[in-house]
Inverse folding.
């Protein structure tokens, strides 16, 4: 693509505020992998790119200049209208099981990896455009993304990051000035996504489906070097790598469970090898606690319901272990030994998940030490919340006040259809708290760091998206980002953001919105 030099005719006003060059210092390690791992191609330009939002703090942490990213040239680059110096855009090949059915070729059908940058934390990060046009992997799709899904991913991924959950990030959102055609006509947008990498379980399945054992080995070596360097020194590097992916996923899913987060589409192509939450589609945070909750309009069987996420993760990781069998067998000495190695690795998921989940729930209840009856106390509360349709986030946040004294009970109790269900549980909880000799202020303060007041509640997300789509009003979106990136604070002025949806505004379905 041509890169016209924009500097000569830039008016003096923007000369001061808008830099005419944007330095990314791209590295392109993925582009050094064999050609069959991806397709090289530039993003497809859009009609009229316009900045929606740049993530100033993230940009700085990546060593990028946020003003430059927000400038005309920055917006041209991050809309796909200009290829930055040093970028080698490509679409990555991958496969995947979608709702249990294997698709041997998916791939980046509407995304371009621009390259990698080194963060201030020393990490390597992919810079990817999502919604950047058709690729050889597009199948019937238009290669584009709607404004709604782009803003949703921006809000929810930034909320997750602020909540301390490993996740891809949103660096910039731009409007394309084009219309896209879905059930209705929608404004188009492009999201610049930052990820530790875009390696997925499905990336390994792509080579498995082709009987390409050498591809699996090269991909595993790349993943080890990038995400699990300690595995390279181990006796059995590939087994150690699999152990590492399983450990990170067990911890990640436990974090989701402790926050009431529902991914919505845990297909194998949406599970990251690095252990980050990736591909925010019809995701949502649960309000009334019910493990059977599903938001995705495409998940009719409830395959990826809140309470099924552990099973879905194990299912996906089993597919990863299968794809790795050629290298596991080789390093274990035989096919049989390879299968045994895979099974042993997979068996570690449940205990690690359970340990991470109970540790998280202990923190949420303010329990510092480990006692025999803790799990029962936790499960008892969850059962009572389910039976009484208590709001998941608010119940735990209000327990922080209840931990200070019984005066806090009223607010927590009022969330239960039958308030006595809370009262009788709280008696046992208080007795248990006495076993930990922690000053109550200290306990409550610690609990506040595990129990957010602000999550991106679905009706608030919808409100922000609708204002942007219908009225080009991005103020609710900006405000919501501000709120959800301060999840653990108490701010009386933001009280409405803590509350569940009023009945008429309840969102029961979110749409994939591809
Ligand atoms: P997702 O549902 O976003 O996880 O995507 C699943 C697969 O469909 C991936 O291969 C995507 O690249 C592809 N895809 C989703 N939406 C589109 C679109 N609008 N155009 C082309 N490919 C798409
Ligand atoms: Mg996906």
């Amino acid at each position: 693509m041509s890169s016209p030099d924009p500097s000569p005719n830039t008016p003096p006003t923007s000369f001061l505020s808008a830099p005419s060059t944007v330095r990314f210092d791209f590295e392109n390690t993925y582009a050094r992998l064999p050609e069959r791992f991806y397709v090289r191609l530039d993003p497809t330009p859009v009609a009229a790119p316009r900045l929606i939002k740049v993530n100033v703090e993230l940009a700085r942490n990546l060593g990028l200049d946020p003003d430059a990213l927000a400038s005309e040239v920055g917006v041209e680059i991050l809309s796909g209208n200009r290829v930055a110096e040093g970028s080698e855009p490509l679409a990555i090949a991958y496969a995947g099981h979608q709702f249990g059915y294997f698709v041997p070729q998916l791939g980046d059908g509407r995304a371009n990896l621009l390259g990698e940058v080194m963060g201030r934390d020393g990490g390597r990060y992919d810079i990817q455009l999502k919604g950047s046009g058709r690729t050889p992997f597009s199948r019937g799709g238009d290669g584009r993304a709607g404004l709604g899904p782009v803003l949703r991913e921006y809000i929810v991924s930034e909320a997750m990051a602020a909540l301390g959950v490993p996740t891809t990030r949103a660096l910039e959102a731009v409007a394309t000035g084009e219309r896209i055609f879905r059930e209705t006509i929608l404004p188009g947008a492009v999201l610049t996504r930052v990820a530790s990498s875009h390696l997925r379980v499905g990336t390994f399945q792509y080579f498995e489906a082709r009987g390409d054992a050498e591809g699996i080995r090269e991909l595993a070596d790349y993943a080890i070097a990038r995400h699990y360097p300690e595995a390279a020194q181990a006796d059995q590097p590939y087994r150690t790598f699999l152990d590492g992916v399983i450990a990170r996923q067990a911890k990640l899913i436990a974090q989701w469970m402790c926050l009431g987060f529902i991914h919505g589409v845990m297909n194998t192509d949406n599970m990251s090898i690095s252990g980050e939450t990736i591909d925010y589609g019809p995701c949502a945070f649960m309000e009334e606690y019910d493990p059977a909750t599903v938001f995705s309009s495409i998940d009719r069987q409830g395959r990826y319901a809140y309470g099924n996420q552990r099973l879905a993760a194990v299912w996906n990781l089993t597919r990863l272990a299968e794809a790795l069998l050629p290298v596991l067998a080789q390093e274990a000495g035989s096919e049989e030994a390879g299968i045994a190695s895979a099974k042993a690795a997979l068996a570690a998921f449940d205990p690690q998940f359970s340990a991470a989940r109970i540790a998280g729930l202990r923190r949420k209840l303010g329990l510092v030490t480990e006692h025999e009856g803790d799990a029962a106390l936790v499960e008892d509360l969850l059962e009572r919340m389910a039976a009484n349709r208590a709001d998941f986030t608010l119940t735990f946040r209000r327990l922080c006040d209840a931990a200070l004294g019984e005066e806090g009970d009223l607010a927590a109790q009022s969330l239960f259809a039958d308030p006595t269900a809370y009262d009788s549980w709280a008696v046992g909880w208080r007795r248990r708290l006495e076993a930990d000799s922690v000053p109550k202020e200290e306990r409550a303060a610690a609990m506040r760091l595990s129990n957010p007041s602000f999550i991106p509640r679905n009706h608030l997300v919808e409100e922000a998206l609708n204002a942007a789509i219908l009225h080009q009003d991005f103020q609710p979106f900006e405000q919501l980002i501000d709120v959800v990136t301060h999840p653990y604070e108490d701010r009386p002025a933001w009280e409405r953001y803590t509350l569940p949806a009023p009945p008429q505004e309840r969102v029961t379905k979110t749409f994939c919105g591809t």
